[in-house]
Amino acid sequence: MNKDRPTFEQLCHAVLEGSASEADLEQIRERLRNSATDREAYYQQMQIHALLIWQNGRAAVPESLVLAPMDYSEKNNIIAFPFRRAVLAAAAAVTLLLGLAFWLVPDLNDRALSLAVQKGVSVDILASSESPYQVGQRVILERLELETGSLRFRISSGAVLDFEGPVSLEFLNPMRLRLERGSINTDVGNEAKGFVIETPTANVLDIGTRFGTSVCADGSTDIAVFEGEVQVYRAGLPLTQESRLATLVEGEAARMSARDAKLERVNMLTLKGGRLQVRGLNSPDSSVVLNVSDNIKQANFYRCYTIVSGGMAEGALASLSFKAYLQLKWHAIPGKPFPEELKGADLIGTFQSFAKRERGETSKNDISLDLSRPCAVYVLFDTQATPPEWLQRDFRDTGLRVRSGPWGKFAREVRDLDPDANGELNLTHSVWRRDVLSAATVKLGPPGNLGISYPYAMYGVAVKALD
C-alpha cells in the first residue's frame, strides 16, 4: 500500500475543509465515479460535516468546494447532489448523528475548528490576448470582467472556456458559472459533462461537448450547439423536467427571450472565423446579408443557418452538422485552385447534410436572403441532381466547380460515389450566379422538384458585394 497516498477519509476531510489539492480532487472524483460504497460514505461525511456546522455555528462550506455530482451520478439524473440536501438530511437525522458525531470527534471542544476556505475557482490560462493574464498561469477567479482582448482557460472541473471581450462572468463553482453579458464558447470534453451556465433568462446544462452562449443587450440568451447536445431550462428554477424547455443538438440554435420568457428558434447565427465562435459584441456582422430565414413552421425545430463574413475560401465550413458526416468543408477540385470569384464572399451555412422531407417528397422549403446592397448571389448545387426550375430560371451556371466533403461513408448523399485517391467521399457542386443590383429580398427555392424524392446534398450559398 502506498503510504503517501491519502486514505478516502483523509480525502473527504480535505475536500470538506477546503484544503484539497488538485491531485486530491482528481483522486476523489475517480473513487466516486467507480465505487457506490465510496459515494455513500462521502454522502455520510457530508451529513456529519453539515451537522457540525449547524451545531457549532461555523461558516458553511461554499458549493464551490462540493465535488460536481455529474461526474459520478446516474446518466439520467441531471439534478445536482447539492450541499443544501446534505444540510436538510442532517437536520432530519439530528438525534442519531449527534451520537455518531460524538464518537467520531470526541475532542471536538479541544480542536481548533477554523475553516480555511479559498474563495473562487481555479483556472489554468491556455491562451491570452490583451488580457491581464499570462499563458500557463493558474489563478483563482470569483468574477471576471474583460472589456477587450480574448481569453481561453480550463476550469478545475475540466471545462474549457473561450471568449473575447466585452464579457462579464461569475464563477459559482467548478461546474457552474453565471454569464451576465457577452458571448462564450464552452467545451466540456469528457470530464465536465453536466456543466451549467446560468444567464438572466436561462440555465444551460451541457450533456455533450461544445456549445456557445451569448447574452444580448436586452437580457435575452442565444444558445448554439456546435457538437453534442445541451438542455435548456428556465432561469431561477431547479433543473427538473418541469423547468426544462428543450434539448438542442448540434446545428441547432435558440433564443430565450427576456420579453416573454419564450424559447424561439434562431434562424441565422453569425459566426467568427473557422473556430465556430459565437459572435462577440465587438465582432462584425455581414455588411451584405442582413438576415437569412425560411418558411419552416415546425414545432420544436431549431436548425439554424450560419453566416461567416468574408469566410468563403478553401476549407471553409459548409455546415454546423458534425454527427455522422464529419466536418463538411468547401474545397477546390483536385488539381485546380479554389475559384477566385468565390473567395472572400460571405458564406451562408445551410443544412448541408439535412434536407427536410415530408412523406418521402422533396423539401418544400424556401430560403430568403435579405440583402443590404448590390451583390452577387451564388448557389452551389450538387451535380448528381437535376437543377430545379427556379435555379435555371433566375441563375446562370458559371462553369465553376467546387467540392464538399469529406462525407461519411454511410451518408445517402454519397451512396453511389466512389472514394477519391485519398479514400475520401467528396461531392462536386456546380456554381450558379445571380446579380442583384439593389437592396432586396431574394428567395431561393427547394433543391428538388415536388413529388420527387431528393437523396442529394442540400445546396450551399455565398454572397459577395458588387463593386
Residue stretches low in confidence (pLDDT < 50, at least 5 long) are 53-118, 354-362
Helical percent range?
10-25%
Number of strands: 27
- Count up the domains: 3
Structural class category: alpha+beta
The radius of gyration computed from the alpha-carbon positions, rounded to a whole number of angstroms, is 27 Å
The overall average pLDDT, rounded, is: 77
- Note the beta-strand portion: 25-35%
Q: Describe the biggest sheet?
A: 15 strands, mixed
Number of helices: 6
Determine the N-to-C terminus distance: 76 Å
Principal-axes shape call = elongated
Q: Care to describe what's here?
A:
This protein is α+β, with helices and mostly antiparallel strands and 467 residues long. It has three domains: 8-104, no CATH class; 119-263, Jelly Rolls, CATH 2.60.120.1440; 284-467, no CATH class. The protein has helices at 8-16, 22-34, 36-56, 83-92, 94-104, 389-394; strands at 121-129, 138-141, 143-146, 150-155, 160-164, 167-173, 176-187, 196-198, 202-206, 210-215, 221-227, 229-234, 244-249, 253-256, 263-265, 268-272, 277-278, 289-294, 305-308, 329-332, 346-349, 367-371, 375-382, 396-405, 427-436, 440-444, 460-465. The longest helix is centred in the first third of the chain and has 21 residues, at 36-56.
Topology summary:
Layout: H1 8-16, H2 22-34, H3 36-56, H4 83-92, H5 94-104, E1 121-129, E2 138-141, E3 143-146, E4 150-155, E5 160-164, E6 167-173, E7 176-187, E8 196-198, E9 202-206, E10 210-215, E11 221-227, E12 229-234, E13 244-249, E14 253-256, E15 263-265, E16 268-272, E17 277-278, E18 289-294, E19 305-308, E20 329-332, E21 346-349, E22 367-371, E23 375-382, H6 389-394, E24 396-405, E25 427-436, E26 440-444, E27 460-465
Parallel strand pairs: 7-8, 16-19
Antiparallel strand pairs: 1-2, 1-4, 3-6, 4-5, 5-7, 6-7, 7-10, 8-9, 9-12, 10-11, 11-14, 12-13, 14-15, 16-17, 18-22, 19-21, 20-24, 21-27, 22-26, 23-25, 23-27, 24-25
Helix pairs in contact: 1-2, 1-3, 2-3, 3-4, 3-5
